Amino acid sequence: MRAYLEAVTDFPALQLRLRAAGICSDEATHLGAVRVLQGLPAAQGPFVTGAL
Amino acid sequence: MAERSDVDLMVDLLARERRLVSAYEAALRRDAIDASLGEMLLAHERAHVAALERTLAGRGNPTATVPSPELTAAVRDRRSFAQYAIRLEDETIAAYADGVPRIRDPKLRQPLGSIMVCGGAHLVALRDSIGISLVD
Fold it and tell me: Does residue B112 belong to any structural domain of this protein?
């Protein structure tokens, strides 16, 4: 998640940033699902940056 | 088509976040969402609105949010509201996924992206609340 967010920030080409953002939005639901399966709230806060 | 300015893009995102705030407020008033879930989602959306308003600092001119007939119909029960909110969150995530990469100021892209990720988690929480597959 963090890597995709960094890609959206840092990639110089718009098309690459768009692709990274699309993947990031999918990963967001995967991260939320894993947290729910762990018995945690889907979102840990209003700004989710992922782990390093 | 001309590229939109950063302000225009953020004004659009702010309008969408305000629509989510209105939706969760209405659902909580009508008991159309579990209170703890609704309060958490509402708190997140309010934080998103506050962050966007701070960043915009009075620039832009978001249109006023008016309650939609769809929302009025959706708050009749928890399942229909969850389905409505899932659609709204999904549309908002799509707007972020298309808009954030177009923001010219790179320092804004990561915080805006972190809001998009939160939206993904909201989708999962709403899907879980009505017992459907956590991801589609």
Answer: yes
ipTM score above 0.90: yes
The stretch B108-114 carries a mean pLDDT of 96
Question: What is the tally of structural domains in chain B?
Answer: 1
- Cβ-Cβ contacts under 8 Å for B122 (sequence gap 6 or more): A32, A42, A43, B41, B44, B85, B89
Answer yes or no: is B51 within a domain. Answer: yes
- CB < 8 Å to B122, chain A: 32, 42-43
Whether residue A21 contacts residue B115, with contact meaning beta carbons closer than 8 Å, is answered with no
User: pTM for this one?
Assistant: 0.94
Distance CA B134, CA B65 (A): 29
Task: Flag whether B62 is in a domain.
Answer: no
Of the residues A11, A29, A31, A44, the best mutation for testing chain B's interface (the one with the most B CB atoms within 10 Å of its CB) is A29
Which range marks the domain in which residue B114 is found?
6-55+67-129
Give the integer Cα–Cα distance in Å for B133 and B136.
7
Task: Give the pLDDT mean for A32-48.
Answer: 94
CATH of the domain at B36: 1.20.1260.10
Q: How far is CA B81 from each of CA A35, B71, B90, B127, rounded to the nearest angstrom? A: 23, 8, 14, 11
